Amino acid sequence: MKIVNTSVKRPVGVIMIVLAIIAMGVISVRNLAIDLFPEIDLPIAVVATSYPDAAPAEVENLVSAPVEGALSSIEGVETIQSQSQSGSSLVIIMFQNGTNLDNALLEVRESVDQVKSFLPEGANDPSVLRFNPNQMPIMWVGLTGSDIAKLQNLAEDRIQPYFERQGGVASVNIEGGEDRIIDLELDRSAMNQYGVSPQLIQQALGGANQSASAGSIEKGDKDLQLRIDGSYDSVEDISNSIITTPQGAKIKVQDIATVKDTFQKNGTSLVNNEEAVVLSILKQSDGNTVEVSDNIIAAMDDLQEDLPSDVQLELVVDTSQFIKQSINSVIQNMIFGGIFALLVLLLFLKSFRATIVIGVSIPIAIISTFVLLYFTGETLNILTMGGLALGIGMMVDSSIVILENIVSYRQKGYSLKEAATKGASELAPAVIASTTTTLVVFLPIVFVEGIASELFTPLALTISFSLIASLVVAVTLVPMLSSKLLSKMAENSGRRYWFDRFLNRVTNGYAKILAKALKLRKTTIAVTIAAIIGSVCLVPFIGTAFIPEGDQGQISISVETPTGTSEEKTLEITDKVNEKLAEYDNVIDVSYVTVGSGDPSSAMMTGSSSGSYTLQLVPADERAKSTTELVQELDKELASIAGAEITVSEMGSGGVSSGDPIQIQISGPELDVLEELADQVLTAIEDVDGVYNPTTSVSETQPEMNIIVNRELAAQYGLTYQEVMSQVQLGFTSQTVMQYREAGDEINVRLIYPEDERSTINDLENLLIQNQQGTQVPLLTIADFEQEQSAATITRNNQQRQVNVTSDYVNRDLGSVTEDIENVLDSMQFPSDEYTYTIGGQAEDMMEAFADLGLALILSIFLVYAVMAVQFENFLYPLIIMFSMPATAVGVFGGLFITGQPLSITAFIGVIMLAGIVVNNAIVLVDYINILRGRGIDRHEAIMEAGKTRLRPILMTTLTTILAMVPLALGYGEGAETQQPMAITVIFGLSVSSLFTLVLIPVIYTYFDNLSERIKRIFAKKA
C-alpha cells in the first residue's frame, strides 16, 4: 500500500507527525473535563410555584392542576409529574428523547404565561427552569466557630463571594446559620386601645421607609438633583415611627409593639456534631469537577490565613476525591494491563526489539485517542478511561499481525526496508477489515436512545478512537520502526526454549483434538449445543442488575419525625443518632447533618420535622467493611430510636438513574383509596426476599386544623372572607412589612404576635377578628374547626393522582427482586380498572436499557456479517465464521455465574464488544484454509495445516486482549466495580469462544463446503 511505502521511505516525516500528535495529546489531556460519569443530557423542564401558607390539597387544585393542563398540549411531552405540598408546587415535564429543550422551554414559558392569570391571588409567578441532573453540589465546606451569627456574616460577606470568583464555580449556597431580623411584637391590648389594625401599621411603615426623586433645581451653572431620603438609619427610627390612628391621634410604633432586633435560624447544620455554617458549591455545566475542587481547596487555604483564630474552614464532602481515586485506579489497571500484554509479546516473539516496536503503538494510540476525545467534546470519566483500559489488549492486535508478517519476510532473507514494505502492504487490507468488524459493533450504540446510549456512547467512541489510532499506527509507525530496529532477530536460546517446547506440545495436542473433531463432527456439534443450552440454563441463577456502582464511602441518613414536629424535638432525635454514630468514629471521617434547613421561597423546602445526615467514610482500604455492610449495620442500630422514621442508604453516583432502585407507582382518582392500596402493597412486598427499607410516600402526613368560615355569619358582623383569612394568617404567622437597610444588608421587618398568644388551639378559637368599624369578634363565633390528617405531599402523574412505594434491595439482584414483586402485585386485587400500578426507578431504566442494547446487539451482528461478506466477496464463508458467536454464550454466562456477577448494562456492553472480537480468530482461520486450498492442498490437510499454523497468532492476540483486561476484571481500586462485569464478560467470552472457534469452525466449514459442492453439482446438472 502507498501509505506503508511512504512511512518506510520517510521515517523523519512519520516521527514528526507522531511528535505533533503527542504534543496535541498533552494539551488535550490538560483541557479535558474530568468527571465520574458522562453528563446525561435529559430533556426535562421544571415549573416551580410558591403559594405561601396554602395546604397541599389547595396547592394541587389551584396551582398544580391548572399548570399541568396548560402544559399537556405541548408537542413532544412524554410525562408530566407534579408535587403539591404546603406552600409550593413543582411540575416536572419530561420530553421525548431528541427533543430540542431550548425550543421546548420557550413553549413551556408561553403556556405558563397563559395560565398565570388563573392562579390564586396569593400565588407567586411560576419559575420555568431547565432540569440538569448533573447540577448537584460537588463540594460542601463547613465553617465552624463559637458565634454562629458571626459565621453567617463571614460566609455571606467574604467566603461566598470569594468562592464564586474561583474558576468553574457556578454558584455557592449557604446552609444553616442565622439571619438578622427585626420583629415588631404586637400588643393586642394597646392596639385595641388606640384602635390600630395591623394593616394600618403596615401602611404607615411602608410609606415612611421610602426614598424618592423630586426633580432638580439650578444652583449657579449647575443642576442639583433633588432627592428625599426617608430610609431608616437605625432600629430606633423604626421604634419612633409615627402612626396616625383612625381618631387622628399620633402614636409611635413602640407604643403598640415591642421592637426586637434578633436572629432567625435557617435550620441547624452540624459538622462532626459541632454547629456550623455550610457552603455547597455547584460547578458550571462545562466545568471540570476536579479542577473546581482544586480551586476551592486552594481558596480555602488562602481564606484560612485571614480568618479569626477561632474560626475554621473544613472540607465536609468532596466528590472529586472519589473521581480522582477512580481515574487513578483505571490508569493503574491500564498500566498493568499494558505490561501483561507486552510480557505475552516478549514471550512469543523472543525479541526485545520486536516487543518495543509493538509496545510503542500503545501510548501513541492512547494519546491520539485523547486528541479525538477533546475534539468530540467528551470528558475523562471512568467509562471513557475504562474503554481505553479494555482496548489496550486489542490495540496491539493489528500491530502483531503486521509485525509477524514482516518478521517472516525478514527470515526469508529480505532486506529491512523490503520486509517492512512487503510484510505490511500484504496484510494491511486484512488488518483493516478485521479492525472494521470490531468497530462496526459500536455503531448501533451511538444511535440507540435512552440512558444506555447516554452513558456508553462515550465508551464506544473511546474504544473506536483507540482502535482507529492503533490501526493507523500498525500500517505506518510499525513498518517504519521495523525497518530500523529489526536488524537482528534473536535466535532461540536456552532461556526461552522451554516456551517453544511448551508451545509445540500445545500445538500437537490441538492437532489431535482437531483431527478427532473432524472425525466426530456430529458429536462435536452436539457437545457445543449442549454447552450453549447449559449456559443459558444458568441465566436464572445469574440475575440482572442496573449499573454496578463503586464504593464511594458516602452514607445518607434520613430522620423523619411526624410533620409539624418542632425543630427542638427533631434535634433531640438527632442527638440520639449522634450517640449511636459515635461508636463508628473509627470509620466515619466527617459527619454532616442538617435539621430544618431550606429556603422558605424554595419549591423543595425541608421542614423542621426532618433531619438529613451525610457521612463521609474513611477510604475503603482503611476499613474492614464495605459501605453496603455499614449501611445495613447502621440501619439495625438506629431502628431502636423511637419517635422518628430513620432510613439509612448508600449514596450513589447520582445522575445515572431516575430515582430509587425499585419504585412502584400506583395511580388512581381518590387519594384515600391510593393510600390504602399503598399500605397493602408495602405490607405485601416486605416479605419478598431481598427487599430492603420499603417506604411509601403517603406515610408522610401532617396534622391539619381546617378552619371553616361561615361566610353568611361573618357578613353579619361586617367581615369578608378575605379579611378573616388575612387576620388569621397574621395571628399565627409573621408578616414582612418592609426591609431595613444597614451596612449594605437588607433586613426583614416583621409583624408578629407574642408566642404565648399563638401557640394553642384556645388561642386560635379566641382570636379576635376586627371589622372596618373596629368591632371585634372571636373567630370561634364565625367559624367551625375540624382536625384531620392530610398528605404532606400530593403527587400526580399525567394529571392523575399517584402514590409511590419505593424500596432498596440487598443480597439479591435487582431483576429477581423486581420479578418477585411483580408476581406479588399481580396477585393483588385492585378496586377497579381506574387504579393501576407501574414499576419505575432503576428497574424501569434497566429494562429499557436492556431492550435498547438488545436491538444494538442484533444490529451489530448484522453489521459484522455485512463487513465480512464484503471482505470475502462471498455470503457463505461469513456465515461459517458467525458460528463462533453462539459459543460465546458459554463463556459469558459461565463467567458471570462463576464470579457471582449479575448481567448488568456494563456486562451487556461487553457482549456487544464480543460480537466484533470473537469473529477475528475465525476470520484468520477460514481465510488461511481458503489460501491453502487455493494452492491445491486437500481440504482435510488444509484445515489441519491452517489450525496448527494460525494457532500461534490466535493465542497471541487472544492472550494480549485477555491479560490486558485482567486488572479490571479483578475489580482492584476505587470505581473498578463499574467496568468489572464488562471485563469479566470479555475475558470469559473470548477465552471460551476461542477454544470453540479452533475446533467448531473447521467442523462447520466441512459441512458448508459439502453443501456448497452439492449446490454446484445441482447447477452443473441443470446446465
Automatic annotation (TrEMBL):
Membrane-spanning ranges: 12-33, 330-349, 356-376, 382-407, 427-447, 459-481, 525-547, 849-868, 875-899, 905-930, 951-970, 982-1008
GO cellular component term, pick one: plasma membrane
Pfam families xrefs: ACR_tran
Keyword line: Membrane, Transmembrane, Transmembrane helix
SUPFAM superfamilies linked: Multidrug efflux transporter AcrB pore domain, PN1, PN2, PC1 and PC2 subdomains (SSF82693), Multidrug efflux transporter AcrB TolC docking domain, DN and DC subdomains (SSF82714), Multidrug efflux transporter AcrB transmembrane domain (SSF82866)
Domain of life: Bacteria
Protein name, per record: Hydrophobic/amphiphilic exporter-1, HAE1 family
Organism field: Gracilibacillus ureilyticus
